[in-house]
Input
Amino acid sequence: MMQRILFVDDEQSLLNGIERRFGTQFDLVTANSGEAALTKMETNGPFAVIVTDMRMPRMNGIQFIKEARTTAADSVYIMLTGNQDQATAIQALNEGHVFRFLTKPCDSNELAKAVEAGLRQYQLVTAEKELLQNTFYGAVSVLTDVLELSHPKIFNRMGRVQDIVETMRSGLKLEQHWEYKLAARLALVGFALMPDDERLVLEFGIHSEENVNACFRRAAEIGQRLIKNIPRLETVARIIGMQAEIDGRAVLPTAKTEDAKALMGATLLRVAIHWDYLTRQGLRASAVVGEMRRSLPMLSAEMINVLHSLPDEEDVDDEGVEVRPAELKEGMVLAGDVVTTTGTMLIGKGRRITAAIVERLRCYPLADEDLRPIRVTHASLKLAADVMLV
Output
């Protein structure tokens, strides 16, 4: 897929010439002012490389780049200007973090080479970020899979929390941030280090609301302390730590700062965990919305509308199909709890099967116990079969 380039200049004749010269070589979009460019970044982005003039009315090139970077930090910026003053070049490099500085008139071949270099730089930056994100998420998934085997009643809920967070993010039309997904995956890790009586709060609704809130707050604090020690997961740690104190009012489609990202992520997480907790007490979706409006009176109207679209947990279940442990495949979803013949629950209903779970279940039968019949959902069984045919 060809990466998109944005040219910004207040001279329309120059933009017309750029389109004639490079229209077949690059996927081009042009804008005749900084303000127009910011609008096109919202409607036509993302842009791999952004080439801008320095001297423009109302908003000069450096001002434009500073504003553009709040929503397009990974884009590569090139400054093209007729001003050959060295001070301007230094300002562009230092304040705008400009990748290249070119002066008018600029040879078309030189401009093409600069854009191509910018494209390579963009590919390096985005590839490194994607690798980093996938590495973090893969490592965290292995960790939580192992934790689930020792604390199934806690960690089998994480998949449900993740699904709710993503449904709300999509329904609110929020930007995708990997920190939201990772925070949902690690949201309940603090409960693993809490005493047994406090962990039971996660499963049963017999405690007072004050005790429940205190336990969730303590778990959030523990989770934040654990995760903040991992480099580059500072925002994820803040999301988990903040969510116990969130009032639900935040709806930030574009999180321009790490503070805004933490606030929005914490809001999604608080609402998702609270929704999951209440639905597991047997409340229908309409009743859960009422409970949440009472406990979070500042909950935004937009969030409430999205919550009304969430299904009751039992609505997405089916009776499932019985399978043997040897027939389990990654990606299948449990239609019932996995329980041993002695009554020990190993994995909770609704959990998506991972490689770690497959290995664990294939260890049975043991000398003194076996597994009761395992059931997986019809949809996931069909999906696994379709994958085998590919």
Remarks:
- The longest strand covers residues 76-81.
- The two ends are 25 Å apart (CA to CA).
- The CA atoms of residues 12 and 32 lie 6 Å apart.
- Residues 4-125 form a domain with the Rossmann fold fold (CATH 3.40.50.2300).
